[in-house]
Amino acid sequence: MEQLQSSFCFIFFTFTFLFSLFSFSLFILRLKPCCSCDVCTAFLSRSWSPEFVNLSDWYTHLLRKSPTGTIHIHVLNNIITANPENVEYMIKTNFDNYPKGKAFSTILGDLLGKGIFNVDGKCWRFQRKMASLELGSLSIRSHALNVVVDEIESRLIPFFSVAADKGEALDLQDVFKRFSFDSICKFSFGLDPGSLKPELPVSELESAFDRSSMLCAERAMATTPLVWKFKRFFNLGSEKKLKESIRVVKRMADEVIKKRRQSGFSKTNDLLSRFMGSISDDDYLRDIVISFLLAGRDTVASALTTFFLLLSQNPKVLQKIREESGRVIGDDPTQDPAGDPTREKLPAFGDLRHLHYLKAALHESMRLYPPVQFDSKFAKQDDVLPDGTFVRRNSRVTYHPYAMGRMERIWGSDPLEFKPERWIRDGVFMPESAYKYPVYQGGVRVCLGKEMSLMEMKIASLSLIRRFDVQVVNPDRILRFSPGLTANVSGGMPAVVVRRRELPE
Ligand code: HEM
Ligand SMILES: *[C@@H]1O[C@H](CO)[C@@H](O)[C@H](O)[C@H]1NC(C)=O
Ligand SMILES: *[C@@H]1O[C@H](CO)[C@@H](O)[C@H](O)[C@H]1NC(C)=O
User: Fold this and answer.
1) Quick one: which residues bind heme (predicted)?
2) Is residue 380 within 8 Å of 393, Cβ to Cβ?
3) What per-residue confidence (pLDDT) applies to 184?
4) Average pLDDT over residues 84-94
């Protein structure tokens, strides 16, 4: 009996191994690893790396040189474009031919399930409709504002105050990640992970969530999915860790959902409660909520981090933001309009609309450092892009906001300069076409959290700018971004904080 079992095992493993080898070679052949064009050779030998610290800059260099603003990395079967006409075509005109695709959804599938971020077609359309309806509602918007204001008053400002008193450097990236994680968790499912409490606790949810998204990103970086699929099948190494982390995230989300079912959801205003009205499948609910955590967390943190970097490099812009806020809100950051001396005055929602320069500065900052540096789709059918590029079915097509922000043909002769004035005409903020500036994507599947994120970033940055001088340590160093779904600065963003004005007792 035992012998039978072990020979069965042997046959099974041999078969699996041979089969993997076979599909691996097929995969490699399909990729055309032998392509000898200059770009592919440089890609494979990494000969670009001494000149360009990071891959995005090398792509930017190639895209600038390309007359159409489009390149083709044959070995990856990947077309990359920085041409606004192509971008419009992909994400709007012929949207249906450019879904996220199966390759992407299997990579994130274990974590995100059927959540909005990870699906196409009918399932996506349904969630999209429901979510945009909810996010557009007045009550959700005011809930979002309350969550953010509360997190700023009770955690962000006190944290910076302590850092200022102690004179110790803090890591902006880490602090903003905690800030945005607390905010998005409270907003989407009414759970407070408390990760920005003074002692910076390790939140179980946050670290499990971090680990999950990092390990998923590693899957995405792999040249072939076979290795991780193999590891997943046998529950080995990183895949074992990933499985455990995902289990923690799902368990915590499930607990919240279960409690909410018991206590009733009609009185609470978070996104989960709102979705509960129309969805009775709790696994589906959980997937939807987790998608929101992923979408709304690292993006905001990344944008805030590079915003403060650019402000450290450009004190004149900082000065102008302060002048504008003084004009619109008044000069004393500590004065509460309701006369409550214990409350520090935060910019009110109504004020935000008048802060044109601040809005311009945030957009300008994300032009140079888009939180999502590039975004890929997979072509369903053979197609031709507006610039004439032929797209074979199943190839990956990527638009590249990072490169686009650095193109002279889009932004004029000084694309690398941080100039909020680009966005202002006659004192008023003028939006740019989403196809030239696809930082929030655009078209049919434009980011659903755009307004909310701008509100969050305006209030958070302004609250800090009005109270403190935040000086990034060594602001002119060359940045390195670690690979992942969202731009993440390797080594963090250490900064020194000084209080601008003594607060009254
Ligand atoms: C600076 C902040 C943000 C940036 C730059 C940003 C950017 C993006 C981008 C590029 C996409 C498209 C991703 C893709 O389809 O591949 C996206 C989708 C999405 N974002 Fe954001 N986002 C931000 C903040 C937020 C926030 C705070 C929320 C949550 C309230 C959010 C919710 C979503 C959702 C739900 C989607 C999926 C939409 C869909 O697939 O139909 N985002 N975002
Ligand atoms: C990459 O490196 C360059 C220097 O070559 C630096 O200026 C740039 O900010 C970095 N960008 C990213 C996305 O890492
Ligand atoms: C982001 O960078 C920080 C600082 O180097 C690092 O500790 C963290 O693991 C990185 N996160 C991801 C998701 O890569």
Assistant:
1) 447
2) yes
3) 95
4) 98
